[in-house]
Amino acid sequence: WLVETFASRSVRFDRIFAWEAKPVVQKDLYEEMPISVIDVISYFNVPVSSDPSSKFSPLRLIRDLTRPKDFVVLKLDIDNSPIENALVQQILHDSSLSSRIDVMFFEHHYDSPALMNGYGWARSGIGQTMAKSYNLFFKLRSLGILAHSWV
User: Fold this and answer.
1) Rg of the chain over CA atoms, in angstroms?
2) Which of 83, 86, 97, 127 has the fewest CB atoms within 10 Å, i.e. is most exposed?
3) 102-114, pLDDT tens digit by residue?
């Protein structure tokens, strides 16, 4: 969806980093990808790390492999709230990261009666509220990141 949506606005990704913690059948995964994605993807079938120096930290890759003038889109949805929240805090407190991320899609889990039953948010958003979520997105946008909720 992201690749197609941005392509419709004449934005072509020249590099895509993607993670999936669950083991997948590589052949099946790549058969579904269009050639335009195959040509630019770096795929990691390991869990994301929130350690800023880890070789599996998506933020380390952004910091080390991009320049401030690059157009960087980050989609953060790994269904592990502690790691996601740690990554967002790194972005908020490190200008070498926030200055490089232009657009961000983030599924911020928070306690919500409307989202609890059947959506898995009841346990993963403990201590988070809708107000805290709005505040978090406000902070990201204040840093110049076009941050959008991803659900």
Assistant:
1) 16
2) 127
3) 999 998 887 766 6
